[in-house]
Amino acid sequence: MSPLSIEARKDYWHGRFEAMASPCEVLVETGDRTLARSVIETVAREVWRIEQKFSRYRQDNIIHQINHADGKPVMLDEESARLIDFSDQLFQMSDGLFDITSGVLRKIWQFDGSDRVPEQDQIDALLKDIGWQRVCWEHPHLALAPGMQIDLGGIGKEYAVDRGLLLARSITDDSVLINLGGDLACTGARKIGGYWSVGRMISSHDQAVGLFRLIKGAIATSGDANRFLLKDGQRFSHILNPKTGWPIMHAPHTISVAAASCVEAGMFSTLALLQGAQAEEFLQLQQLEYWLD
Amino acid sequence: MQLKKISGQMSLAACALLQVASPVARAAAADNNWQVDSAVLLYSESDGRVSVFEPALQATRTINEDEQIDVSVVFDALTGATPNGAHATESTQTFTSASGNRSYTANPGETPLDSSFQDIRLAGSVNYRYNLDRLSRLTWGANLSGESDYLSLGGSVNFEQDINQRNTTLMAGLALSQDTLLPSGGVPCSLTAMPLASENEDDVFQSAGNSDDKLTTDLMFGVTQVLNRKTLFQANYSYSQSTGYLNDPSKIVSVIDPATGLPASSGFFNTALTRNLPYVYENRPDSRTRQSLYSKIVRYLNEDVIHLSYRYYRDDWDITSHTLDLKYRYQMEGDFLQPHVRLYQQSAASFKQHDLQLGRDVDAATGEVLVDYASNDYRLAESQTVTLGLKYGKLLAANQQFSMRAEWMQQTIQEPGVSESEKTPGLDAIIVQFNYSIKF
Amino acid sequence: MRILFLLSLLPFFSACSSLGVEPWERDLLARDSMQLVPDVMDNYFDEHIYFSKEASTGGQAVGGGGCGCN
Question: What is the ipTM of this complex?
Fold first, then answer.
């Protein structure tokens, strides 16, 4: 378990830890150190719990069990079932563009800035293992065809932020902000100044390019300006279309969206990226606040 | 993927994932802990019969995501006159008010109206609702209503269980109510003579005591089903059992001498019990079992909403009724118009009797009433009610709403075989109501 | 023929599809105007008025309390 640090700032306590391969911050607007510590620790424990439970890199969790069931149905606990329900809804809302079975494409697409674009027959070979419509999901039983895999990485961070915030809210009425690698949410207006200022980054480990001012709700960012392939002058973004196995073209590099919850903000920014050149039009239609790069 | 607006769906999906009840409840949990509904009802019957002024207030407090409590208070001031059960005759009729210290008369051809009909009522109720788990809820309720001559105390419990991904809600409810009648002057002995004001001192009001009780048990089972995104359906079965004193202590029945067609003359008899016929206090069975089937459809129609309900009712007093209710909410920008139609039809109770005939229903020699039950209460007669109304509502601010409605109600009483001049007249009433509600 | 009939019923009993909507399709059903009893006060007064003028009562809910008006 990675360490957790807590520092006093002018009007708030600032907690830091690492989770989900990202730096994580928890800001608590209180003078009470004990309260702040309890909020920060609660949030950290929840984020770590979600990471362990749903990480695809572990062998001791439900995701591993589902991905290695060899065609047999797996009975899910309530929380996992809710995440699968949510993914199912996103699949339908996006007409199949958001698909948690598309992660296997990573085997051949590595967005390291190089020009290694895979061959069509490699893609075709993987496409037969992709497609949420082929999964049998009868709440709470999930059965994947052998060879298929699911990956909740596209939801996990945002879900962890919202969960952390719900727990924080049960401890204190003071304003709390959680920033998990650029996906952020806060519980309500600050007593001092009203809003939280958070650096705006276009890649999860870069310097901030601007400031978000958040009074209430959440902002999530999708896309990563540093993850792409470049071949014959053409830029391939790391957002893949699960139906074709190819990157979505002409999408903005990053999209940030503000919404009531981090899950909503995150899904809108992801779905917008999946619209490619129509990303902005899609966001305007939703009547949400957004930022493009 | 076609570009489409999905923010509403997304917000609901996120709520389901995070287990926060709904976007509405979530906003309420964050910002609106209170809702206050207030209303004033003005009800007025034509021909100077009953009029009612009734303000009501309800405060609902959302304690947290799992608990809600509401408290209501109602004040009810009623004045006017209502048919006492005796029917119009060719002669002047004189009656004593229930308390025995006032008398009133009905001119020839006039339906006798009890003008002492006035009361003030104060009622309150509390309901506490909480989640048993994510899919089931329990509501406990208590209510109290008091008038100078009536007291009602009740309690209820309601259980709701969501199944089928919250598309189906099963409901079971139980309510008990204990009512006490305290007529001023005492509870009259049923089927005994009503004393006449002008009579001599030998007149005795036959009292069965100062008060009497009735106990009502209600049971209900219901299902609410989401049919599709735009349609909701509800079906309820109710069973209700009342026992105890079910008479209306102020209602009487005329005793008619078939030879003259007029009320049997005073002093016609000499037995102590029935000395003062021609009017006897009504009598109803001491138990009543009611059953009803209620169904409702709520349908969204391009911003407008239709509410349509039908109730089939029957009881073991042989009353069967049908009720159809239709509301069409015509939605405009920030306001709405809602026409309302209600149609009601009921059959008569088995013991609904226009009058008692000497010789047939009353022993002409002893004055003994020979029937077990008799009532000429117009509410137990065959009748139809038609109500037409219009409601206007306006959103004053995001958290405040005002609405008002005006309705016209017409009730017709059917009394087969009764001559036109003796029939209980129908009823026209106007209902005006103002509502204001605020959330904070 | 009989098998066709049974097959046509299948969707109603399969766990994957049933009467109703998915959680994210509840936007319209969540509106105030789509509630079973959208106007609590109107409902209360109507029950009171018709209880005092007609023989029938009940059907929609239990509890709420009596009055001497009938």
Answer: 0.90
